[in-house]
Amino acid sequence: MTESADEARIERRAEDLLPEEAAAGSEAPEEQARVILEDSDERTEHPEETRHESTQTPD
Fold this sequence. Notes:
59 residues, mainly alpha, 66% helix, Nucleotide exchange factor GrpE
């Protein structure tokens, strides 16, 4: 059985935690990675829609 590209991406993200994510720990690292990547994809695909919602993006 072959993994889909998304599944492989999620697995890599779950394994390559940021230092603060590793320190906090997670009982479900793959689910956490899935949510993080979905949010990232949404912001990448629709930057103008998310720009006004971001606290990190200057006007």
